[in-house]
């Protein structure tokens, strides 16, 4: 019986055949690991013997054509056995405990001398062991980084994707900081090496992990920035291009790379709050065309507010910023990079990249690098290559912390070289746009005479020049209207506005937005703040937000006041929601008249109520104090609140804000915010009131809104926008392509009659008239009429021979 059992087991394992059937043996060993231990030892010994042969060949530097490396069958058998052992290693942890380390040592010692197919098989076996957590990635990261430098394209792609996905998977649920720090030390050390291939692969790995939001910390960002000072120019160019195109890479890869969305945290939807009156007028007041305009303006306001809230949320989220934001020593980085630029002998494109990174860093961190502006001044010429990129860098490097005297020579150079009567329209428009962008950041550079000369270009017949001059005029209407002559000032929002002096800073002495909370507590907020959530939230949320801490009677009183004011300005509702281009002065006049009407109506109502109260007092014989208390609305509100005291107590038990209101109403505290302590509900209410105020300002605003210095520093200046409205002359081929594209959309030419004959959908009115059944009298009249017309035609066709004398 024993020999039969041995024979059965050998035949089942496939040993009777000339070659082992590894896939079938692998499945059998996974189902019964203990029964196939002898086969495992046999295959493991074969693998070890093949490894020794390869290592001896590497030691002897054996390069003859008859060597083992040239034998494809030996390499294939070794690769198959390596994959086989990797698959069964989890089922034999004791027998194959040293197998992963042997694979690592084998790749470290002889990876360069192995055939390409064998290298890929061994790397796949090692990746399989790492994925099953049999060996740690810290022990294999150096090997996989070196495999990327061998020149094998398939192996490079395999090793790179394995490193990226392993680190991503490791940080998927939570950040593994000790492991991350150990792996970062390995990559940082490779990045600082003189060997270009290893440093480049380390930089590419760090940039990809940073872009995927896996390693988004200060250490990684500073390592990428420090790669700009590498001795190899290729490494420097790669680091500069990543720093410059970080935003563009992020925008382009969001759609193409599905994994990017997994790494990013979920951002909440923006909350849009609009005026109830504006929404009502857009849907119910005016003609169809005016409603259409009002709805379009509402949609524009919603889009702009969503964009602003998205930008503000991205600012609070550190994942938005490029690596330049995480620089530990931004001033030292900019100075060191500028000194390398001055001593550099690189080609012009590389110098431009260094110059852009310096300008971006100066503008982002509000640095002072005074030697940078005279260096830029040398290249400010209309015929200079890539002059718009240079001008964009000059604009980016300007901010309110730079002394105006340092930038004034550069500013005058731009005006003198670009904006004059003999210059081309393209150069004038670019110059005016650059002047506008610089003055937006440093308005103190502009003088009254220069501004008046530049504003005269708005009368130019070139659209690009006139639009650029008008944009400069619009800017100074908001920033400093006193520099303009009286007819050019228009109707600015603040006629006494002036730019801040150099070094002037407004320091906040209180929590931003706390005054809105105080106004809301005292009931002084105007009707524009009673808004509703539009586009993102439901009406129930709106009612909850607007009704915090107020009773039903209070909200009814406020709605009555609002309805009275709405009736006062309903006649001019069509003018409120027009486009911004319709003239801001007229809209302001209309709004002033509406306010006056509302105030007049309120005054008349108060007088009537006082007269009615006096009459009632005389009739009833009440004393004067009782009459005053009866007509006082505040006392009525207090009586109503005390009537519903139990409801307020229940609300106070659930909400700290309601408890504060109840304490303030009963006289225990003077104000909700006197103690200086704000709850989470207070901060949430401040956020809502700010959103409502921004919505009202966006609806009533006409013209240009000046951004803050922080918004300007984070925004990257696009060189293409400096060339706005410039029509470039098309070549003959481009014009022909446009003509052919238009012909493709249009069908084949046909006459009007042919198109009518092909018409579907019924008969025309003329055809219906021909087929209509007419009454008998009408038919006879038509026949008689046609006979008379025929006789007239026959008479007119005969030749006139003159009148006879006897007739």
CATH class of the domain at 18-251: Mainly Alpha
CATH hierarchy: architecture of the domain at 18-251: Alpha Horseshoe
| Biggest sheet character | 2 strands, antiparallel
What's the rounded overall pLDDT mean? Answer: 74
Strand percentage, roughly?
under 5%
Helix content: 55-70%
- Regions with pLDDT < 50 over 5+ consecutive residues? 1-18, 63-68, 249-271, 525-643, 666-673
CATH T-level fold name of the domain at 18-251: Leucine-rich Repeat Variant
SSE class:
mainly alpha
Radius of gyration: 41 Å
Shape assignment: extended
Count the strands?
Answer: 2
For the record, give the distance between the C-alpha atoms at the N and C termini, rounded to a whole number. Answer: 153 Å
Strand order in the largest sheet: 1-2
Number of helices: 40
Protein name: Protein SDA1
GO cellular component, one term: nucleolus
Organism: Sesamum indicum (Oriental sesame)
Biased composition (Basic residues): 768-807
Layout of helices and strands:
Blueprint: H1 2-13, H2 22-31, H3 37-60, H4 72-88, H5 99-110, H6 116-131, H7 137-147, H8 153-170, H9 177-191, H10 196-211, H11 218-226, H12 233-244, H13 246-256, H14 259-263, E1 273-275, H15 276-284, H16 288-316, H17 330-342, H18 348-365, H19 372-377, H20 387-396, H21 404-418, H22 425-441, H23 448-455, H24 463-479, H25 486-489, H26 514-522, E2 531-533, H27 539-546, H28 552-568, H29 573-576, H30 584-620, H31 624-631, H32 633-643, H33 645-654, H34 656-666, H35 680-700, H36 709-714, H37 732-745, H38 752-757, H39 765-771, H40 776-797
Subcellular location: Nucleus, Nucleolus
Function: Required for 60S pre-ribosomal subunits export to the cytoplasm.
Biased composition (Basic residues): 768-807
């Amino acid at each position: 019986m024993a020999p039969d059992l041995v024979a059965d087991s050998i035949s089942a394992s496939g040993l009777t055949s000339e070659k082992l059937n590894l896939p079938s043996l692998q499945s059998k060993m996974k189902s019964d690991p203990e029964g196939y231990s002898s086969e495992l030892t046999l295959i493991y010994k074969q693998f070890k013997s093949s490894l020794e042969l390869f290592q001896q060949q590497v030691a002897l530097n054996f390069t003859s054509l008859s060597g083992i490396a040239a034998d494809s069958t030996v390499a294939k058998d070794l690769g198959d056995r390596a994959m086989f052992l990797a698959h069964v290693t989890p089922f034999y942890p004791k027998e194959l405990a040293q197998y992963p380390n042997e694979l690592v040592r084998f790749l470290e010692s002889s990876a360069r001398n192995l055939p390409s197919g064998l290298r890929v098989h061994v790397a796949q076996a090692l990746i399989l062991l790492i994925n099953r957590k049999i060996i740690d990635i810290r022990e294999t990261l150096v090997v996989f980084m070196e495999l990327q430098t061998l020149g094998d394209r398939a192996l490079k792609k395999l090793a790179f994707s394995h490193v990226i996905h392993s680190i991503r998977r490791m940080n998927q649920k939570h950040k593994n900081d000790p492991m991350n720090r150990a792996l970062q030390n390995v990559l940082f050390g490779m990045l600082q090496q003189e060997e270009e291939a290893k440093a480049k692969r380390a930089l590419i790995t760090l940039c990809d992990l940073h872009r995927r939001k896996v390693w988004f910390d200060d250490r990684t960002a500073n390592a990428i920035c420090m790669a700009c000072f590498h001795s190899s120019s290729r490494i420097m160019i790669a680091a500069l291009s990543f720093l410059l195109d970080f935003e563009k890479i992020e925008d382009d890869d969001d759609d193409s790379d599905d994994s990017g969305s997994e790494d990013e945290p979920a951002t909440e939807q923006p909350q849009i709050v609009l005026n109830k009156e504006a929404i009502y007028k857009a849907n119910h007041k005016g003609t169809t065309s005016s409603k259409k305009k009002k709805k379009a303006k509402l949609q524009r306001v919603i889009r702009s507010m969503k964009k602003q809230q998205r930008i503000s949320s991205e600012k609070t989220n550190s994942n938005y910023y490029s690596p330049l934001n995480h620089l530990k020593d931004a001033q030292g980085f900019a100075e060191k990079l500028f000194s390398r630029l001055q001593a550099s002998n690189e080609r012009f494109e590389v110098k431009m990249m260094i110059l852009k990174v310096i300008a971006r860093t100066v503008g982002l961190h509000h640095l002072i690098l005074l030697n940078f502006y005279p260096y830029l001044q040398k290249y400010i010429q209309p015929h200079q290559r890539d002059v718009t990129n240079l001008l964009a860098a000059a604009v980016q490097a300007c901010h309110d912390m730079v002394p105006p005297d340092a930038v004034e020579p550069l500013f005058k150079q731009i005006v003198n070289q670009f904006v004059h009567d003999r210059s081309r329209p393209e150069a004038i428009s670019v110059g005016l746009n650059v002047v506008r962008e610089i003055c937006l950041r440093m308005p103190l550079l502009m003088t009254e005479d220069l501004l008046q000369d530049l504003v005269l270009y708005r009368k130019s017949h070139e659209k690009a020049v006139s639009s650029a001059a008008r944009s400069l005029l619009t800017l100074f209407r908001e920033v400093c209207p006193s520099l303009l002559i009286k007819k050019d000032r228009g109707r600015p929002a603040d006629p006494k506005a002036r730019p801040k002096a150099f070094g002037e800073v407004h320091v906040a002495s209180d929590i931003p937005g706390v005054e809105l909370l105080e106004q809301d507590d005292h009931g002084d907020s105007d009707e524009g703040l009673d808004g509703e959530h539009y586009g993102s939230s439901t009406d129930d949320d709106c009612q909850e937000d607007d009704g915090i801490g107020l009773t039903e009677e209070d909200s009814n009183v406020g709605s009555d006041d609002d309805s009275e004011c709405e009736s006062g300005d309903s006649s001019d509702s069509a003018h409120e929601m027009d486009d911004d281009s319709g003239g801001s002065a007229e809209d302001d006049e209309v709004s002033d008249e509406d306010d006056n009407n509302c105030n007049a109506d309120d005054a008349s109502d108060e007088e009537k109520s006082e007269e009615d109260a006096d009459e009632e007092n005389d009739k009833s014989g009440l004393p004067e104090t009782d009459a005053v208390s009866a007509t006082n609305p505040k006392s009525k509100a207090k009586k109503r609140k005390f009537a519903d005291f139990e409801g307020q107590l229940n609300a106070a038990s659930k909400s700290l804000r309601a408890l504060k209101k109840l304490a303030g109403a009963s006289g225990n505290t003077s104000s909700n915010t006197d103690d200086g302590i704000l709850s989470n509900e207070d901060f949430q209410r401040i956020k809502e009131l700010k959103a409502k105020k921004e919505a009202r300002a966006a609806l009533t605003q006409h013209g240009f809104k000046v951004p803050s210095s922080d918004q300007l520093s984070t925004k990257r200046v696009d060189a293409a926008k400096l060339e706005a409205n410039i029509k470039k002359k098309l070549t003959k081929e481009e014009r022909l392509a446009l003509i052919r594209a238009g012909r493709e959309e249009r069908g084949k030419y046909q006459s009007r009659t042919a198109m009518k004959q092909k018409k579907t959908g019924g008969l025309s009115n003329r055809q219906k008239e021909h087929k209509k059944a007419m009454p008998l009298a009408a038919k006879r009249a038509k026949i008689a009429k046609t006979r008379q017309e025929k006789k007239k035609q026959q008479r007119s066709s005969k030749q006139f021979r003159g009148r006879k004398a006897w007739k």
